What we know:
131 residues, alpha+beta, 1 helix, hydrolase, protease
Amino acid sequence: MGMGKRFRTYGWLGLLASVLVTGCDEAPSANRQEDPCAEPLSLRVHVVSSDGARIQGATVTATNLESNVSITGVTDDRGLTTAINENLAPSPIRVVATAGSHVTPAERVEWTCDACHCTPVPAELTLELQD
């Protein structure tokens, strides 16, 4: 009688162990997400005319003030570019836009960095072309 009870207890433990092991397989899951640190964060830069119209095709250049490395982007039909990203961090950057003979005053952007990303401060700029 004591042996039968012991067998049933171990039988349940074996079944429980096999369920737990099956639940921890390495099969791909649809819920797994990509590494959130992989994609660099971008600075949103809008370029507008002196009357506030959004400018498509303006060239926006950001230059790291310490290394002198630059990234250039071109504004889309909404007057926006997100080409400037944290690859220029952590040193401050100088951002300027040009369209034809018109230039914007330069803006300075700093970075706040954590273990994963450097976030631009400010996160968004609006640069106004001078007449």
